[in-house]
Write a structure and sequence with these properties.
The chain contains 20 helices and 27 strands. By secondary structure, the chain is α/β, with parallel strands linked by helices. It has a five-stranded parallel sheet with strand order 3-2-1-7-19, with helices on one face. A five-stranded parallel sheet has the order 9-16-10-11-12. α5 links the parallel β10 and β11. α16 packs antiparallel against α18 and α19 (609-633) runs antiparallel to α20 (640-674). The longest helix is centred in the last third of the chain and has 35 residues, at 640-674. This is FAD-dependent oxidoreductase. One of its GO terms (molecular function) is iron-sulfur cluster binding. It holds the Pfam family Rubredoxin_C. Belongs to the nitrite and sulfite reductase 4Fe-4S domain family.
Length: 675
Amino acid sequence: MTELDNTLVQHSPSGIRAKDSSYPIYVIVGTGPVGVRCAQKLLEFCDEAQIVIYGAETESPYNRVKLSQYLSSHVELEELDNPILGQNDHRLAEYIDRKITSIDRTQKTVTDAAGNIQPYSKLIIATGSNPTIPGIQGADLPGVYPFRSLRNTNDLLTLRERNADICVIGAGALGLEAATALKTPKNSVTLQSRGHLLSGLLGEEGEGFLKSALTALGVTLKIGDSLSAIKEWDGKRTLIFDSGEALSVDAIVLCTGIQPEISLAEQCGLNTVRGIVVNEWMQTSDPDIYAVGECAEFDQTVYQLVRPGYEQAESCCSHIHRNYGGELLSQPYSGSYTDIQLKIAHIPCGIMGDVSSDNGNAAADAQSYVYKNRFKGIYRRLFIKGENILGASYIGSWDEAGELRQAVAQGQKISLRSLKQFENEGRLFAKKSGNNLKDFPDSYLVCQCNSVTKGELCKAISDGKRNLNELQQATTAGSVCGSCRPLMAELLDAPVPNLVMRHSKGIWVTSALSLILITLAFLMPSAPISDSVQTAFFWEKLWYDNFWKQLTGYTILAMCLFTAALSIRKRWKKLNLGHVDHWRYAHSITGLIALVALAMHSGFRLGENLNLALMLVFLTATATGSLVGVFMARNHHWTDLKLREHRKWWSRVHYALLWALPVLLGYHIFAVYYF
């Protein structure tokens, strides 16, 4: 942290004001993502100004948008860091755990909780919002947690680690992500809401798909029954609903919305309604004070997403720059799209453009087109007016989501042929020659949150930004929700670290050992046939002694059956015990044990006739499976494109050979015991 000389920054109540300084001092209150963005923009736009930023939380600036991903263990704690780019600049002073308590508009100063006074030339309020606590009995009891800050998230992580039974109140984006993130194989999670999921924006059929997905993940739904009270009984929290039903849990998580933090604005007499009222340059009723982010109200709207806050920061800082003799670097703020993009466990879900109303219909005269595949859990809906796309919603993966978002924002025209293709195949746009981002035009918008194009990323790479962190710092791409990081990785030919599966080293080692054993089976000479049944050599006893033959044979059979049972985890979604990567590791170890037992059972003799066929099928199936394991485990050394090509080919061969294995194995067992 860089701090200013105290003679220039903070003063006693009788100290000098900002106008006495030879350079402007811009003060920002709030170190959330939008406050940090303002600091970065002012450092970029204003060469002579001094920037001072205050944060009320004890933690250094972090990315609040990724808290749900942190709660679900999809990102590590250090990945939440959101430092100010250029924080080592001598023009920046950053104060953490220094809450601002008052603003003096006449003297143009702010005062912190310790009584320190800071003068300003221009002041930006970026205080964000506070969680809404429902006005019901018991909402303030111990064991009732809000979900808004890093401290809240760490409390919830503790609950999850001890497998506490939890009820999440609220079925907005945050409630959905919290419920699925808190679910473990050993606890129960109930999601309660008095209204529809995501405020009914998915429509009745889309909501049905989402409910099915949540149920499959083990989340219990209690929709349409309002909460009337919370009581504490015998160490448990009991929720009482309007229907008279009750639910006892260990903890309750409130995801019931947010309220703009406007106490500073009210204290100093700025105009407020729901938020701090601002104009198109984010100026408040005091022209020297600006408000951005969730605390600002523009055109009677308070935006509760980070992307509008970033757009507001751009306009605000550009206007401050112009006021001190610079040119206007951005357009006035005119409102933002309020797209919703979230990931519920492994299930992507998105709402973009105009899909609003209780019955799921968009604007008047709009038509909707639907594609659904219940087997894959995919639901996609388009809203079209005339030939233009108004909006879309989807559940399940959709590789066209980025392209579609641009089409919605631009009101792009869509032909009847494309709509027909969408209804039949679920695709709206023509297939591209390749799946690699490198085949897309430079104008393709990679980072939706920060409006960063492929061309901007390529330029940064050519300037020497050779890893994801450097590329993020240079362009801000991937710094918000992180969903574009796999695309950034394609440009770098290096997959995102969190795409590397668990136990990758163990799977790589066991797969490599399996390939070595298979190679030995083909290259080593067969074990000689003993002249006598009286053998003293240990290995020959393994190959000829009836007890050892049966032991190794049944071991191979048990490993084959166990491997078949493991594959059920991938195909039967309700069997969700443990992470799938743990099962992959068990599959890899089982294959290696089976190969060792086979070597002991056969002495590397391939056999003849159907026994030869059995050996060849078993060894080839195991070899292809091991190759798949190698490619999966080493995916951080190859690009995703190469991984997909190799893995798909070897997987198909592996599956095809497995169909013949039960028949040949059954014949072998029958032949041994019958003859």
